[in-house]
Amino acid sequence: MTRKERVQTTLSHREPDRVPMFELTVANPVLESVLGRRITGFGTGEAKAAGIRASMEGGNARRVLIKENVEGMLEMYEKVGFDMFWFRPTEFLSPVMLGLPDDVTANNIFDVEIQETEPNRFRIESVEHGFWSIEQYEEKSDTCVTVNDSIKEGGIEELRRYVEYLEHAPTTPLHPCLKDGLESIKIAVKREKAQEDGMFVLGAADIACPTFLPFLPLFLQTMIDEPQLIERYMEATTEGVMALLKAQLELGVDGILGAEDWCFGKAPLISPQMFKRFMSPHLRRIVDECHRSGVPYIKHLDGNTTVLLDILVDEVGIDGLHSIEPAAGMDIGWVKKRYGDRVTLLGNIDCGHVLSFGTEEQVIDEVKKIIRVASPGGGHVFSSSNSIHSGVSPEIFWTMVNAIREFGVYPISIPG
User: How many angstroms separate the CA atoms of 172 and 174, rounded?
Assistant: First the structure.
């Protein structure tokens, strides 16, 4: 089978020739060891900081950064033998005002001024509208987070003013920053379609829940104090997401993956009832748009997602679930038994402990266990429980990959 055929067969809940392999992203040092050169990659603090610095230099620097990294990541995935590739067209577009890559919408504020007020500390401000945020990059931990913003400081009145901005900001034509970002999707689709054994290319779209922004506590409290304002926020941001989603579908992606998180170790941020009111109708709108174009929608969620799975699978209609985190109490065997006939599972070897601190023997044992319980009958793509982060060594990474190749051949025959 070709890589794309392998994934398509798996998504249709049939058995391909072997279990497909996928990672949300791969960071250095594994990335560098495979490529033989260093790039920032994506989904890391290093990547976000690089995007901020490129935007400070200007549009050409941003375009060079995007091209270098999407081409480098494609090369790396092809060398490893992964079957799927995912890229966010918004990956290097932080800075935008009050948006991390998964929250960026077509009606964000893109025309901003950026100052490095201290080493690796950036103030991003819209002079025209008065909104601002502070970003802090920590090289040692490879994180770049928004540590403060004008909504957190200004409270509900500032949130209300921001929602009013979103409601009046146009979603088309797309801002030049977004057009730069969409070049990454063009590159990936064109390259993989031109190859006889090209990968299954995923674009990105999700509801813009501000999970990792400083005003999250205010956002959650406002669900109680002024729920109509949150409904307006979700409606306005989803309008902006739809413009980006449609552009990716028109470029010919094979599927869409949404990577915004709403769950922590033991439970979601909000109750299922609140999720059904504020979130799921907008996520369903995204999923429906994908299905109208004949492509699947895969939802990434860290943490314990158990109480939301009925909603996501039966009401929202997702086609795939990533990453089924074992450290949060998620049992991929249980998920397979309950939902495996309706949703493809992507996961779930523990990247927090097993891939970071485990021995080669432990990694091989985990690979065998996961394939044994999740792969029979199809509907399973092997991946880590999040990504191959900077704490995973090249040796352990290749141990995992080689074990998947050895034990993931159909028909599955691993003793229990």
Answer: 5
Tens place of pLDDT for every residue, the chain, 416 residues? 999 999 999 999 999 999 999 999 999 999 999 999 999 999 999 999 999 999 999 889 999 999 999 999 999 999 999 999 999 999 998 767 777 888 899 999 999 999 999 999 999 999 999 999 999 999 988 899 999 999 999 999 999 999 999 999 999 999 999 999 999 999 999 999 999 999 999 999 999 999 999 999 999 999 999 999 999 999 999 999 999 999 999 999 999 999 999 998 889 999 999 999 999 999 999 999 999 999 999 999 999 999 999 999 999 999 999 999 999 999 999 999 999 999 999 999 999 999 999 999 999 999 999 999 999 999 999 999 999 999 999 999 999 999 999 999 999 998 87
Determine, yes or no, domain membership for 14. Answer: yes
Domain tally, the chain: 1
In a domain, 208, yes or no: yes
- What whole-number distance in Å separates Cα of residue 233 and Cα of residue 140? 35
CATH no. for residue 199? 3.20.20.210
Helices (H) and strands (E) in the chain, counts: 16, 11
Tokens representing 337 are 């038994």
